[in-house]
Amino acid sequence: MHKLFILLIRSSLTYFLISFLCCDPALGQSQKFIEVIPGNAIPDNPEMSAYITRLKKNPNISNHHFIHLNPIATTQKEGILTLEIPGKAKPKIAEASEVRYYSSADYEWIGKTDENRGTIIILSKAGRVSAHFSTPDGIYEIFPAPGGLYCLQEVDTSKGDDVGCIAPDEHHSTERISTQQPEHAPPVHSNAKMNPCQPLISPRVLVLYTPKALALVGSAAAIVNWADLSVAQFNSTIYNSGITSNAVLTLAGVAPLDVNESQNLNDDLEKLIINPVAQNLRNQYQADIVVLFSDAVYSNGNTRGGAGTVTLQNDRSYAIVEIWSCTSRKTFAHEVGHLYGCRHEDTAGSPAYAQAYCIKNGLGIVTDRTVMVGKAISDQQAKNRLLNFSNPNINVGGKPSGTNNENNALRVTQSHSVVSAFRPNPNPPFVAYVDGPTFVTAPGGKNYEVTYSCGSAPYSIVWHYSYDGINYLTSNTTTDIFTWNFYQTQKVWFKITVTGNGKSVSAFIAVTSQMPNPYKTGVVETDSLSQSLLHLEATPNPASDEVRINYKTTSDAEIKLDILDQSGSVIQTLSDSYLTRKPNGVTSRKWDARKFPAGIYFIRLMVGKNIETKRVLILR
Fold first, then answer.
1. Which of 31, 141, 241, 508 is most buried (most C-beta within 10 Å)?
2. What are the beta bridge partners of residue 453?
3. Whole-number Å distance between alpha carbons of 468 and 73
4. Cβ neighbours of residue 488 under 8 Å, at least 6 residues apart?
5. Entry pTM
6. In this structure, are strands 503-513 and 439-440 parallel, antiparallel, or unpaired?
7. Cβ(291)–Cβ(207) under 8 Å?
8. What is the pLDDT of residues 371-380, one digit of tens each?
């Protein structure tokens, strides 16, 4: 009986441990965000057949896969998301930059790849996910498909004239110059708590769509997906360019417009501008600008969008965008950029600096284009259009993304308040904002303050913090000011939830800290991410199991090689001895990372008085 009891206890414990490991995502193996559906598991029914037929009509798609998406909360680790694209040998590693996570069904996750040359946008609204991956190696999009599946679409980048813009300054037909002067933005008070309700300050966009556009995508819900992703893509461009968040777009609404497209975009644009139904809808939705989704074949398919003004003319703040290119070709963001007063590269106008910029290498070859570049670039490296406005103060791939003479980011910073005043704003909702430094370079405490408006007392405040933008911990702070002590290099997100008379709103802020090494002992120390004195290398990086560490010594020296976790604690010492090395000798060590959880680690090498660190990402 005693043995039977012991056996029963052991069996119960084993079952408990297995269940715990399988159910706890923090302990079990991470899920993949993208899982390809086998061909025999794809539904064979009229709804799926109609969906595939519509895909084949989309000239942008070179390939597609039906997939399943796992929750982002269980597929990212510490703000790092691995994206395995079907048919690609190497996954894309994206690091979170902007995250607004309200729930598993409602969030916006924006990350960067390839030294900021790539942008990953994942948007979930009411559980419907849409995504855009723009990288130097390819462009991909994800949209809902029948049967609860999703479709990953590979964009054909072989077409040179990708954005297909007919710029306002290039119109040669019946352009009508308005004499109406743009209105000025209403004053914004600096202290929300002293002024109970501030006016809205972000521009609002109304998205209209033609019957042919509706027929192409299949449903009004799909139109909304395109509109949401288009707005998110434009706002990502704002974030990437270091522009104030007051310039981001708000989607005022989505509505049908019963018009037929012609073969001339200029003619259709002029008709849209004077269309009384479009004007009434603009007033009804209190929209500052209007974008019409169409499905026409303009100029043999080479023209994909156009804007009515580049000089902030209120009554011409309309644009047309081919729906199948709105996000895949960045045409929506491009045309809205025109409505904000931005111009193509090498295009004269006022102000003179409101021009796009082409980033070139030492040979003068264009490697990257900012979003407002008008011409196509045949060089393979430049096929990916950056989600960046030109800005000399923002580096992409180690190079400035603009100059003092090409600075569309400055133009948007100056113009957004004018655009937001084109139409009267609706009654402001209960809203909260967080103010504080977003980049910290010195250790110590930093204060973050919440302001809120348009609510009603009594108020309560709760602060949360997160190391990945998704999984938040609740702090003990319930006042307007929250203090965070920075002591190491990290990225951290703060979320503030304000409740007023039973209604709650949340605001977010992402903060990057770049700290001096805490183990510096009065000697010169470098981060090998920027330069290497000891030629410290770690490969592969990212890694999943074993990491090979190489370093060079030029003389006899005392060597210490440690592995540190993200908190700065030593978790393993690989070498701690006085070793004799030949001049220019290379030493190699192996670190078995399989027993450590996924995350970011630091290799610290101390050779005599020289200290170097190397950051390593471990994936599971």
1. 241
2. 431
3. 9
4. 513, 515, 518, 566, 567, 568
5. 0.74
6. parallel
7. yes
8. 999 876 665 5
